[in-house]
Amino acid sequence: MTEPLVSIIIPTYNQAAFLKECLDSVRAQTYTSWEAIVVNNFSDDNTIAVVSGFNDPRIRLINFRNHGIIAASRNQAIQAARGHYIAFLDSDDIWFKEKLQNQIKAFSGDSSLMMVCSNGYWYNNATRLKRRIYRTVTNNRISFRKQLWSNRIVNSTVIIKKLLVDKIGLLDENPLMAGCEDYDYWLRVLQEQNDSVLVLARPQVLIREHGSNISNLFYGTANTLSDRVLRVYKKYETSDPVFIAKASRRMYAIMIKISLYRGIVSLGQVLRMKDISIGYKIDIVVRYFLRRAIYGAHA
Questions:
Q1: 144 and 290 part of one domain
Q2: Which is the most buried residue in 15, 212, 250, 293, by most CB within 10 A?
């Protein structure tokens, strides 16, 4: 019996140093029926040479300018995919060798599943240390409400049935959704078929931590990742308005706590300055908290 083909979607930009290790982990999979589609956003490094250096017909390269919208790269690969399943993998992450095998086994054991993901490890590239992303130690199903309350899905662990992708469509390419387009997509999956996502507790991937992670790029700017999550909530507010209002209030509270924490750290630095008078330091502190009280988290 022929094993179903898995199409692995790998967008990349100037990450040749990581990409080779990423593709090595794909080629090391114990499950061998796969194709890898690398979507290169016209990188300035040797990305093309890295891909061609494998000389593996299962690895395809698409050169596509995404104008900073990673969802557009993923959508290009989805449209080129030939597999029965779609798997997502960021070019700086690493799969464990039995990752695909374990997830395909989960699908074969339960026809109601539309998507299987897993826990993972945060992996510090500099120190080689790793730590578990979620503390859960048992496999569990995700409902629409659970996912709405808190994202429990790691992008580089996801495998989803292509028939469902065909049904719900492609990822949202709106620039205002950047950094949250995957979160929005998992909600669309669960809105289409609730409780159809399984999270394997055993980590199947290393998520590499470094300075250019997408969450780092958006976090802390005027349009923070939290703002984008709230924008996702707006898309679903008619489906469960009471619960979404509750989740939104929680997100606002998180935004305020983060803002206050960062403000206090910055104020601590101000207070330690030697060339500013104590009166001026007090004035800065008072003005800071007044702005927060009047204008909110982004004042």
A1: no
A2: 15
